[in-house]
Amino acid sequence: MAKATSSAAAAGGRGPAHHRTRLLLLLLVAIAASASTAGFLLRGALRDPCDARGGSAALAAEGSPLGFMRSKLVLLASHELSLSGGPLLLMELAFLLRNAGSQVVWITNQRSEETNDVTYSLEHRMLKHGVQVLPARGQEAVDTALKADLVILNTAVAGKWLDPVLKDHVPEVLPKILWWIHEMRGHYFKLEYVKHLPFVAGAMIDSHITAEYWKNRTSDRLKIQMPQTYVVHLGNSKELMEVAEDNVARRVLWEHVRESLGVRNNDLLFAIINSVSRGKGQDLFLQAFYQSLQFIQQQKLKVPTMHAVVVGSDMNAQTKFETQLRDFVVKNAIHDRVHFVNKTLAVAPYLAAIDVLVQNSQARGECFGRITIEAMAFKLPVLGTAAGGTTEIVLDGTTGLLHPAGKDGVAPLAENIARLASDAELRVSMGKKGYDRVKERFMEHHMAERIAAVLKEVLQKSRQRSRP
């Protein structure tokens, strides 16, 4: 069978000696912990918590583009609380607002009957940052929504919270709602989810392609119009950039992860870092990887030993799809070249240890694809599908190479893998240009500035529409 490992650690620091000591300690914590828990611990440890009683938040607000949000009450409504992209992005926004001095309240609409370790850990992290966590249903949630200066609904599914909870108060709250949408898949376009969408203050979407898709789909299928729509590209967090730009940290992580995978330092690693599912295209990636090995052998190309790393497995509950992936690996006798890694929030160790990121999301692609800019921060070239937000991030032929989605993309992806495997200078050049692009467009302060512009306009509209 293909090899499986647990997550390694991410780390950052302030002074060289302190940094190295802290890094190694965090590595030891990660090795001893489970993947998801380690990811939470490490990312939480790297960010200084905002003081819920003021102090640091007041100081941060002065220099923040979000400073005008100081003392504002913001209600964040998420459809779930998990390690998936939507909730984690909303949490980042919560921390940005707290650092700017906002009063932030979080509710989760769909909660499992038994609070699991991940939910508990994420809620605990929010509480440490001064974010109040409330039940999604009940009078306190209604009162908070009515008092709030701004309500942010996260994902299309979060719209199901409005009618059952707010009931007759929905018209009062709609003028101060900013709806943050991350979805591209068709089943999210249900009238029960988005029927209130035309009446909110605005919709915030992560890429121009996704925004255009939503405008067309809602108009054609649901016969409703989108509100004022704002496109806000995301940015990398400060702690991830600290690791990406720290040569000592990267070297330690490089050696540890490669040792855990059982690969040599001079081997080439092509990795796909997404939850394992058909929509993320791990099956087509492995097919392309296998074809690239055959092509290299046929052409007698001189390349380092190549490996494929699939980060995003669930060791406790392997799906039928993942079983098919592993069967493919065994059937084609590439089990010594393919490594399955358990899902983790701590992606920095793998970005530090690999040579190329593969972003192979299928159909309409990713709404944005946060892992893509994270990889570029680590000076990695990206092989991505020519779909969705990836086309707004990766410059084809400059910071990476794009291939079609679907089965038609397997052969081109295989060619691109072989091309980068055989050209070290191209890998370095693309990685450097990708890093430069991140510094120019996809930093946390860029995201904060873009969101600040949206919030200013939405608050102004809300005040105008709420006047008698």
Automatic annotation (TrEMBL):
Pfam families reported for this sequence: Glyco_trans_4_5, Glycos_transf_1
Presence of the UniProt keyword ATP-binding in the record: no
Keyword Protein biosynthesis: no
InterPro entries given in the database record: Glyco_trans_1, Glyco_trans_4_5
Top-level division of the source organism's lineage: Eukaryota
Keyword terms, alphabetized: Glycosyltransferase, Transferase
Listed CDD domains: GT4_PimA-like
Gene3D superfamilies: Glycogen Phosphorylase B
MF term (GO), any: glycosyltransferase activity
Domain Glycosyl transferase family stretches: 258-436
PANTHER family per the UniProt record, alphabetical: GLYCOSYLTRANSFERASE
Protein name in UniProt: Glycosyl transferase family 1 domain-containing protein
Species this protein is from: Paspalum notatum var. saurae
